[in-house]
Amino acid sequence: MRKIRFEVLLVAAIGLVVLASCDKQAVPGAILELNGPVMGTRFNVQVVGMPESLDKEALAAEIRATLDGINATMSTYLAESEVSQFNQYAGTDWFPVSASTAKVTEAAQKISAATGGAFDITVGPLVNIWGFGPESALEAMPDRSVIAAVSERIGYQKLDVRVDPPALKKSEPDLYIDLSAIAKGYAVDVVCDLLADKGLENFLVDIGGELRFTGRNAQGDLWRVAIENPRGDRKPYEVLSLEGGAVATSGNYRNYFEIGGQRFSHTIDPRTGRPVNHSLVLATIVSDEAMTADGWATAMIVLGAEEGIVVAEREGLAALLLSEDGESLREASSSAMESLRD
């Protein structure tokens, strides 16, 4: 990986920026640029070198339909979505779901098990009592008894997933799940697979800062993704220039609240029932799949740098963790990430 200076920011997202060049197009073929709202955020698709035989409008419509379908299946904001229906289900028998929902849930459960519950798609009730859910902002810290009571209602161990036939099962009737910490990455992967199946070799897909790319950009260069500096400096912390892969960044420095002069993070540790209390402010994961990078970036923000780097090494993850250290940043980088820098 090489470090590159930049002048133009093409797409800004939490933690990540795609760098643009003003040079003329070097890759022959048509270019498709598609963007819009989806899953509570925005998506951006760039395809380079499209053959004339491929209908751009038809491809754009297929991409939008694919994203809308995933959102309609996994959104917790749509009452009729599959996930919402499961959350409303008060039984403890197997609840049939689509193969996609089972796949994403299974991936989330594997990260939960690998982190001892630091990543947990059932954490929603705790997020709500700390004022980061759809309810009003918090004016006072929740009582310990409330935290304890809500903590009893959550836990990835209370959720089972079956891939064939696809179904979910909960041991507590009021358990509910939220796939938002991993579903965007899954959607990126699905769109990338769609493009690859059509024989396309040069593209980038971004949903809310979860990226996956392959091949070259319009100028014939590798796709360049800048990791945002948590200190707010316009100069990126680092630029990733890779043949292909997925990059996800999770930040812990923008969304917070203060009570009595004490600052609380928006990131809740399901293991303690409280906001995380460490200095890690940004975690970037590079992987082959966006779903993997998405989920693990969130998990790292919960774990913190000290615990997170140990887990990253054990799991073979390419991880870059940035922590506040007074007026500067302290970096922890896994061996897999270092190999990308060589």
Indicate the topology:
Layout: E1 8-12, E2 16-20, E3 30-38, E4 41-50, H1 56-74, H2 82-88, E5 95-96, H3 99-114, H4 124-129, H5 144-153, E6 159-163, E7 166-170, H6 180-197, E8 202-207, E9 210-214, E10 224-227, E11 238-241, E12 244-251, E13 256-259, E14 262-265, E15 268-269, E16 274-275, E17 280-287, H7 290-303, H8 305-315, E18 318-325, E19 328-333, H9 335-341
Antiparallel strand pairs: 1-2, 2-10, 3-4, 4-8, 5-7, 6-7, 8-9, 9-12, 10-11, 12-17, 13-14, 15-16, 17-18, 18-19
Helix pairs in contact: 1-6, 3-7, 6-7, 7-8
Question: What is the C-level CATH assignment of one domain?
Answer: Alpha Beta
N-C termini distance: 6 Å
Architecture per CATH nomenclature, i.e. the level-2 architecture of one domain = Roll
Percentage of residues in strands: 25-35%
How many individual helices?
9
The general outline is: globular
Uncertain regions spanning at least 5 consecutive residues: 1-14
Percent of residues in helical segments? 25-40%
CATH topology of one domain: T-fold
Strand order of the largest sheet: 3-4-8-9-12-17-18-19
- Structural class based on helices, strands and sheet pairing: alpha+beta
Largest sheet: 8 strands, antiparallel
Mean pLDDT: 89
Count every beta strand, where a strand is a DSSP E run of 2 or more residues.
19
Order of helices and strands: EEEEHHEHHHEEHEEEEEEEEEEHHEEH
